[in-house]
Amino acid sequence: MLRKLLVPLLIIATTSGTAVSVAYASHGHDDNNSINRELKRVKRATQQFRKLSVAQDAGYGLLLDKDGIACIDMPDMGAMGVHYAKGAIVPDGAIDPLTPEAVVYEPDEHGRLRLVALEYVVFKDAWDAQHASPPSLFGQEFNSTPVGNRFDLPAYYSLHVWLYKNNPAGMFEVWNPNVTCTPGNDDGQGDDHHGHHGDDHAGQDG
Which of 40, 175, 187, 198 is the 20 to 30 Å CA partner of 33? Predict the structure, then answer.
């Protein structure tokens, strides 16, 4: 049952249109220094997942949407990439910056996956039962996806962190214009703008 919920979970955040960004540059100098230190800690803890097999050994598994698609993109906005989620910790109602619920990869022209981002996810009911306000990390409040979404999942909070590939739209934005699911295409998007199926990427090391 959990697997059924997790398969589309991170994908919805890319298609719901409910994401609200908070400008990273809006924080004061001291706050930015603190955030940068925390991001460095996170990078030290997660850079091992540049190698996909290490992420898999740590319990991260490939996520597919309801159509069996693994790599998610959006016309004129860029892409998210291929998500690997650690299903054991998604429903725990907790957020640990050093242990993201998902790691996100971009396929290259040779079919290899390169780590580009982290994603933090927590079910809304589980979080709200213990907290008076939405979760936040790195000075950013999480995005909220309500019940009634296209996958009929419970409401949840999520935050993307583009720690391994520059995102000109912003470090914490949902979509990255520099990421593509169709490497080698001039326009950076597939014909149907839906990305690749899971079999295209599973088992490749970044």
Answer: 175
* The two three-digit tokens of residue 106, written as one number: 């971009």
Instruction: Fill in the amino acid letter for 95.
Output: I
| 83-86 long-range contacts, CB within 8 A, separation 24+ | 83/10, 83/11, 83/119, 84/52, 84/55, 84/56, 84/60, 85/6, 85/9, 85/10, 85/60, 85/61, 85/121, 86/58, 86/59, 86/60, 86/61
CA angle, residues 46, 200, 120, in degrees to nearest 5: 30
Kindly report which listed range (18-22, 155-159, 197-201) carries the lowest average pLDDT score.
Answer: 18-22
SS3 (DSSP) at 199: helix
H or E stretch at 190: none
Both tokens assigned to 96: 């640990």
